[in-house]
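Hello again,

I reread your note about wanting to compare the complex against the isolated chains. To keep things tidy I'm splitting this into two emails, and this first one only covers the full assembly. Below are the input lines as submitted, including protein chains and any nucleic acid or small-molecule components. They are followed by the predicted structure of everything together. The single-chain runs will come separately.
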Amino acid sequence: MSAFHFLRALSQINKTTPKSSLLLRSRRIRHAAYASMAYTAGRSRLWSRALLRRLQRRSRLRYFSSQRTRAVIAPRRLKAVRPRSGEPSRAEALRRLVPGGAGMDYCSLLDETAHYIQCLSSQVQLMQKVVGSISS
Amino acid sequence: MEMDSNDKCGMEKRSGDHLNHQTSGISASWQFGTPSMGAVPANPPIAMCQGAPITSSSCPSVTVVDSFGPGPWNHPANPQNSGFSNVQTTMSASTSIPIGKPVSVSSREMFLPPIPGILLPSLSLFPADSAFIERAARFSCFNGGNFSDITNAFGPSESLTPLSNASRDVTGDQVQKSELHLNEVPRDIVVPIGCGSIGGSPLNNRRDQGSSLVGGLSNECWEANFSEDDQEKSPELTNTAGNSSSSDLAAKKRKRTDQDMELDQVQRGPQLSTENTKDTTETKQKVEKNSSKPTGKQVKDSTEGPKEDYIHVRARRGQATNSHSLAERVRREKISERMKYLQDLVPGCSKVTGKAVMLDEIINYVQSLQRQVEFLSMKLATVNPRTDFNMEGTLSKDFSQTCGGSSSMIGFSPDMILPQLHPSQQGLDQFGISGMGNPSDAIRRAMNAQLTAMNGFKEPMPQIPDVWDDELHNVMQLNYNANPPFNSKELNSKPRDGFPI
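Full-complex prediction:
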């Protein structure tokens, strides 16, 4: 299912974006990869919900953004993850890595991390296969 | 956590589960206590569940209860000793389970039989002192069970007070002790009920009347290792007594499937603390024996576990039974279990031990995966501009590679994709994908079947694709339509958090 969505988005990107803007294309492809990954994971996962929310926010931001709105919204994203008790300090880094990790307790963070790793690795495999099939 | 609905189910289930276990325990203790009949020591040795279990069916307990019912009524005026003997004879006559020890022992046994229907009528009557004392003693002989109804029966606690007072005046030390036990008995019966459906505040009032004997009694009654700890359970009890849906820590820990006597969260009043220490050594042996029992029950518990929101935690021998420490232990076990799972996921982490190093490895792995995604997207951006890029060919090749090529699927997918992609390519600007409808669902299903096998994790069947379709389309659409206002500033801005997007 993720392959379908990703490939569909990929084909669309190929059609719509100019070939010159490599950075733009790569960014969009990455956006599509994460979006299809989160979509495939479903609503049952915290990280997928948070990821979709983030993607939507950024997309809307880019679409409607002016310099002012970007400056206003940016400081909110800089809010530091406060160190929580009863968990190692490295958990903060993990929270920043996993989408939606800031709002979870340590136990569910580990849970979400496991599922996130699963989805990420499958997405990477998929992309590798696509690249392989295209280039061959 | 939702306790309300689970409460009733758990209670009923527990009553069913407890019957077998408790009857055996009861019989054992009774047998043990028989020789010392007539003696009312202050702290009789703990005689719980040491003998071989008698028939573990509900029938004996029922008969026992039945015999209890008429028993006290038949001997209302007898002094305590004779009453006990009468009861014992009646008991032995009716069942193979002798009453055993008098009040002191029986009152230690906190658990009432899980047959509230039978108990309620007898409880509500509160006849003369000795009869009541006998009954209370007998009730305390039963192990575990569904306390909720019983505690409700104890609701009219005012009747207990005059009874106990009267008994104190009428008879001598034994009656006094038994009456004290009596006072304790309802309290203890109430106290250990952790399930949150405790009979309510009147019982808490009874606790306040306590004597120091309560602690000893309640301790020995418990099969669990209550010896370890004495909790200030009165505040907790008051909390739980009021609403069964209370989400206090103690309630959360309880697995309904397990028996009450295995509750580690001791809902005892503060006055029990003194007795707890005395019985520590005695109960520890019981704990050791009981530790093997729950292992047998755990299999059953695990099957019923998913239905409950609460998890019963059993404090192991030598471990603190503090509510906080128990919660900590549960949490730690959960975390370690998840760390083990993560260890399997992350490649090359089998040799790593310790949470700190493991966490570092996990973080590195997630970062590497995210970097890989970025790199691959860059690669795709460079590779894709080929004009002869064939989506259908790629798709079918992709499926064949990933799924080992189930021929039917491969034959299926290009056919399905072809008609789809053409209209989709035309309508991409307006995102006519939503018009795909059935074909897309079919493809999704096919791909889902293939990919789930590949990915190894179940993805939700598209009952929610409609909602998600819109979301995904919005996301994609906004991304694609962002081309005009897009400027290089955003490209150069570093991501503020580790997440690359």
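For quick reference: The mean pLDDT of chain A is 78.

B.
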